[in-house]
């Protein structure tokens, strides 16, 4: 059947199988013909043709698909020619050439898919590898401690027994009397203390661990695991450099209304109690920090090696680093928490008529006698809630910053 409309002829062959179609736009027919002088649009359907791919065009002028040939007229088919359009118009026996024509936009889509999208990567080159570690450690410390500042405040109150005996009670008391800003009390001082402390700690651990780790074929330099020794050394270094900031931060958190700001607290402590007061509790702090740092970094390094061996990779992403660091923080904080409690009691001193302890052993025995074993783990819940994510965020930020801050010799 055929239909004429607006100079366009639509011709469809009777067929049962709709598996393929041919679309042709031949040139305008000669004047005087049966054409309207417009375009000739032929849409042919057949029953038995199953092409390999694409659409096929015939180099015919009146019938077929494709571009016009050089001849102005096509030879008329033989009377006994087969009725199959493929054999009639496209087969080699008919003297025609088959041309594979891709669908419109198909090749463009393939080219677009073939293009590799380059991810944006920020790289800042630094001249010194030690400077890179210090900057990365400082950023990691500031970000991690700011994120968990409310938990740090609640933990400190629970350790010294002020503003309630539970996490919920301390939180409600702070929100009632001080508002949400009370949860971040001393956070600025905390960042000032933690940023350089974490920078020194991570820098020392990375440097010492690389130095102590034997290369291939070398003998072990220390009898203990290198990461354990490097972690202990890192804790001692950071504590000696930043301990006065830790003491002032604790005083600002506990003694509300006594000090106006960080500078006022520093001057008042030095003037009224002497410079040595800035290092009150240093020995128990070192005793508490050394096992914590050693355990933390040893667990982190061990878990990293286990992850690399398990997944057979040398690269660890940000999320696995966060989880590994958090697990290391949970292990180390649980193992050394009683020493942390004793250290906080020694730092507070006789504020508010509290008992003064002579040393860490005296503090541990007194707390155990007065409050039992539970007193040594008072505040462990919020402490883990704070230390575990803080450790994970710190390690994650440190590793991410090291990737951003590349050395000059890095690729």
Automatic annotation (TrEMBL):
It is found in: Mitochondrion inner membrane; Plastid, Chloroplast inner membrane. PROSITE patterns: SOLCAR. Its main location: mitochondrion. Keywords: Membrane, Mitochondrion, Mitochondrion inner membrane, Plastid, Plastid inner membrane, Repeat, Transmembrane, Transmembrane helix, Transport. InterPro entries: MCP, MCP_dom_sf, MCP_transmembrane. It is a multi-pass membrane protein. Solcar repeats lie at residues 128-211, 222-306, 316-404. GO terms for biological process: organic anion transport; organophosphate ester transport; transmembrane transport. GO terms for cellular component: chloroplast inner membrane; mitochondrial inner membrane. It comes from the Eukaryota. The keyword Repeat applies. Belongs to the mitochondrial carrier (TC 2.A.29) family. This is ADP,ATP carrier protein.
């Amino acid at each position: 059947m055929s239909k004429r409309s607006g100079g366009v002829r639509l011709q469809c062959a009777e067929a049962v199988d709709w598996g393929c179609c041919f679309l042709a736009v031949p040139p305008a027919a000669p004047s005087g013909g049966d054409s309207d002088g417009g375009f000739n649009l032929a849409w042919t359907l057949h029953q038995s043709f199953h092409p390999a791919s694409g659409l096929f065009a015939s180099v015919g002028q009146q019938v077929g698909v494709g571009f016009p040939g050089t001849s102005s007229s096509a030879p008329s088919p033989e009377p006994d020619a087969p009725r199959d359009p493929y054999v009639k118009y496209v087969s080699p026996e008919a003297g025609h050439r088959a041309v594979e024509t891709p669908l419109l936009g198909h090749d463009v889509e393939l080219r677009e898919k073939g293009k590799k999208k380059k991810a944006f990567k920020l790289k800042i080159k630094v001249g010194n590898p030690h400077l890179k570690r210090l900057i990365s450690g400082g950023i990691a410390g500031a970000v991690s401690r700011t994120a968990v500042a409310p938990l740090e405040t609640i933990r400190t109150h629970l350790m010294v027994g002020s503003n309630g005996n539970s996490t919920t009670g301390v939180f409600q008391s702070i929100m009632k009397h001080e508002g949400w800003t009370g949860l971040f009390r001393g956070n600025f001082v905390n960042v000032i203390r933690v940023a350089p402390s974490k920078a020194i700690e991570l820098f020392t651990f990375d440097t010492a661990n690389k130095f102590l780790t034997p290369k291939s074929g070398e003998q072990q330099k220390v009898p203990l695991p290198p990461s354990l020794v490097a972690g202990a050394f890192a804790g001692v270094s950071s504590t000696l450099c930043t301990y006065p900031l830790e003491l002032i931060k604790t005083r600002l958190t506990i003694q509300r209304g006594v000090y106006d700001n960080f500078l006022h607290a520093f001057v008042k402590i030095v003037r009224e109690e002497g410079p040595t007061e800035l290092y009150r509790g240093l020995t128990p702090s070192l005793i508490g920090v050394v096992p914590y740092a050693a355990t933390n970094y040893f667990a982190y390094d061990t878990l990293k090696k286990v992850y690399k061996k398990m997944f057979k990779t040398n690269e660890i992403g940000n999320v696995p680093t966060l989880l590994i660091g958090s697990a290391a923080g949970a292990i180390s904080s649980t193992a050394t928490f009683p020493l942390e409690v004793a250290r906080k009691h020694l730092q507070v001193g006789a504020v508010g008529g509290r008992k003064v302890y002579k040393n860490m052993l005296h503090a541990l025995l007194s707390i155990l006698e007065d409050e039992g074993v539970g007193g040594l783990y008072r505040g462990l819940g919020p402490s883990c809630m704070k230390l575990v994510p803080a450790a994970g965020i710190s390690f994650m930020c440190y590793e991410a910053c090291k990737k951003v801050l590349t050395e000059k010799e890095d690729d």
